[in-house]
């Protein structure tokens, strides 16, 4: 689609049908947009045979307000949301920005009486030249539809969204099947999950989740807490390394960056498959990183060339250090720095592809980088996904790899700026595939996500074809937690399902 092309939508309000060549949208910096108010609304999309009916199906609680939301299928360049407000629950631009890209609104006339529906039009952002233009809030009732139409038409002619910003691509909207117990600490505490797959009993697999104000929590696949380790270490990111050579046997390790006052560095736990328990095996209690500085994210990597095990750690200033793990005295695991380089501005998330010998890092404000993962390779990175393209919105947070046989699979990234997850091809140039935009269900929505994890392996009866885990940054009124999605619900949009891949070295 060429730059500057417009897309025509039709919106039916009552018995009136309006055509808009383009709309004023809510931009990524929280500026307000015009809206149309109506008592009964229907939406029509190109290709629909009839208007059909829409009914509120989702209830969201935010700051004491009741929001009932119905979302239509996505358009090529945008979407129309219908939002019903409870009595006297006005929302301002600040609240709309906090709700992310799915609920956009301005102050409601007369307090937003029950029964009034909002039609909200939005894209990801304005064109670059229009990003700093502030437009006044404009809310109209049905009887004032003509001024609303004129304003929307006039503004749409004055702003042309960037195609790179708006080409969101295919979209899938799964609902979480389960959730974990909330973390013990309030505010911003839960951060990063990892999935450990049991070698012989899939239902005994575990989910690890960091509480960056407390400890590392170990969850069963039903979301219940099984164990808590490293109390007070304040782990931020966690990853799993399979098949570490520990004396005469192979063990699986959980590795986490920790930021506690007395535990700043790297912590390592051995995972016992029989007991389903983690045991601290860190040499010297904690492994120092960045010359005693504070670490941020981490990910593990096993070289197919040498069989060596490594961990990458990141810092907020863009530094990356690579450490080789080794068996130490007294049954402990130590680490030796083998490489250091810089990625640019703030980075946290990382994920390594053992089979392809590469590692990905998320530069929060810019995009996703791919580097060679071998310690003797030159640190020459390629920016494979840019913020602003295909709806990727800063901050770029968690990264995860869905691995399948024959080198197939997907790279998944948390697009925190619009509460979605971007899916890219695992190989080649990491071509963009689609957007995961979870919708609220029995366990609520997912917002402000930091870390994510995914596996193609079968686990419990609830997740027989793979599991996707996402941190939920707004689980109000409860504390933050992690949401669990069945991969087949995501793959229903045409993604690969392959349960034959194994994470363990062969």
Lay out the secondary structure:
Blueprint: E1 9-13, E2 16-20, E3 36-38, E4 41-44, E5 58-62, E6 65-71, E7 79-85, H1 93-98, E8 117-122, H2 145-158, H3 163-166, E9 171-172, E10 178-179, E11 190-196, E12 206-211, E13 216-219, E14 225-229, E15 235-246, E16 249-260, E17 263-272, E18 277-280, E19 298-302, E20 309-314, E21 319-327, E22 333-342, E23 347-353, E24 358-363, E25 367-372, E26 382-386, E27 396-403, E28 409-415, E29 420-425, E30 432-436, E31 452-455, E32 467-472, E33 481-486, H4 487-491
Parallel strand pairs: 9-30
Antiparallel strand pairs: 1-2, 1-4, 3-8, 5-6, 6-7, 7-8, 10-33, 11-12, 12-13, 13-14, 15-16, 16-17, 17-18, 19-20, 20-21, 21-22, 23-24, 24-25, 25-26, 27-28, 28-29, 29-30, 31-32, 32-33
Percentage of β-strand residues: 35-45%
Rg result: 24 Å
User: What's the rounded overall pLDDT mean?
Assistant: 75
As a percent range, the share of helical residues equals under 10%
Strand order of the largest sheet: 3-8-7-6-5
Low-confidence stretches: 1-145, 155-166
Distance between the termini: 45 Å
| Number of strand segments | 33
Largest sheet: 5 strands, antiparallel
Overall, the morphology is globular
Assembly category: single chain
**Count of helices?**
4
Structural class label: mainly beta
